[in-house]
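Case study.
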Amino acid sequence: MSVLIYAENAGGKFKKSIFEAVTYARAIADQNNTNLVAISIGDVSKDELAALGKYGAEKVLNVSGDKLKNFVNQAYASIIAEAAKKQDANIVVLSNTFSGRGLAPRLGIKLQAGVADGAVALPEQNGGKFTIKKTAFSGKAFAIVELTSANKVIALVPNSYKVVETGGTAQVEDFAAETKDSDFKAMIKEIVRSTDKISLPDAEIVVSAGRGLKGPENWGMVEELAELLGAATACSKPVSDAGWRPHSEHVGQTGIAVSPNLYIAIGISGAIQHLAGISSSKVIVVINKDPEAPFFKVADYGIVGDAFEVVPQLIAAVKEYKASA
Amino acid sequence: MKILVCVSNVPDTTTKITFTDNNTQFNTNGVQFILNPYDEIALSRAIELTDGGKGSVTVINVGEVNTEATIRKALAIGATDAVRVNTKPHDAWYVAYQIAEYVKANPFDLILTGRESIDYNGSKVAGMLGELLDLPSVSIIKKLDAADKEATVEREIEGGKEILTIPYPFVAGTAEGVAEPKIPNMRGIMSARTKPLAVIEPVEVKTYSEVLSYETLAPRGQVKLVPADDTAKLVELLHTEARVI
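After joint prediction, the assembly is written out as follows.
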């Protein structure tokens, strides 16, 4: 047997979430005393592929071709499933990205595998019993799930497993997989990627603001603070509902769940639905003028004060810190 | 156009999640169940697309009799008819399999689910349905425009979006942006009582996942308050103590 990790690229490059997933898959391969094979589909340079060896992949299967340059859910699933069969891989690992969430269920059916989506820790394997911890109830809890099938598909939540570089270069092999025409019915017309901003699901620091900011015209200081910290911007549901910010920035139970190292909440009261989406953040800072705001109960650090006074001061303090560092 | 909307019955978004029986059972005591908010978006878009006699919207739920209030809500919002597969929804695999069996006998042009249910958050049913029915699937969409032979959808990706065209039939999971959730009016509520709700029995399916137990979140320590006029102190704490900047 072996473990197969699908290394998703974004415009020909691998992101940190993929290095996390490769490191994680390496640990699962070690649990089973077996090797780790990565598969990449699309247009990625040989050097970039070989560098996956740093995180523990011994071999990288490279699938390329004009039709496969961009993500086609059905075709990619067919190729990964075929690679899993050919490599005798009974555990397939993915990153729980937007595309990963499309692939995992299709792979589950193709491989007759139990699927652990939203995994946040290594599986436990004792006496043939395979259990794994995953997110549940929109971040309000975790579920311990047993996968009882011989094959397993695991989708790891980004920012929940630490990247480890073990050194080494992976051997890159071309892999030709068969696809059928019906796998290519969905056609991509356009891909829009904002390159100047850090994307919310990838961000290690998130600066988020709520209704306390009173209007969209006041977001300048939020963006300035985010830019200084190399952070993504986010917002609460009432803010995106009011059209002050795009839906893609809405963090919470019915928006995006994030798990950054640092989450700074400005003028957000901390309704249970919002907390659900941010509860796995490692450090939480709350700035709110209401000392009774429920958000303070789950915060690590807090400032009770008016955002319009505190945030500009915080920006100045960060600038000073950066100048001295 | 014939549209199928898959709906689930989930705890209300304000629910405080607790467990019983040594953390092996979700505590439903006092919990109000609702139509999954993302499914409500799917349903609302389906109703818009078929408005004015341009088709029908069937909702399907895999659940026991206690989910019928949620199904009636979907009918009140404007679905044409409903199907309930009379069984406990064991996991996404089981649910997708039941719905796929129904669709094989009753084809649809478009199958919509919410992007995920807010209880198990798997985002799996849409993709599994696509695979079981050999149809294209797109997991998380923010926009859905329907033309005669194909639809144009916007799929969310990290830091951007992808615009795709997909011929019918296909499966899609809807997120915020696809439609504004519709609120049932009095006429809808009245007519929901008499709209057809078929109850069918499940097929036997072998499943591969079991929830053994749950964990609640580890509590955080007491919040450390920093005076409002000393933001430099906060920066210092984040650097030296929390080590996040």
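Observations recorded in class. The helical segments of chain B are 37-50, 68-77, 92-105, 125-133, 186-192, 231-241. The two ends of chain B are 53 Å apart (CA to CA). We will return to this complex in the next lecture.
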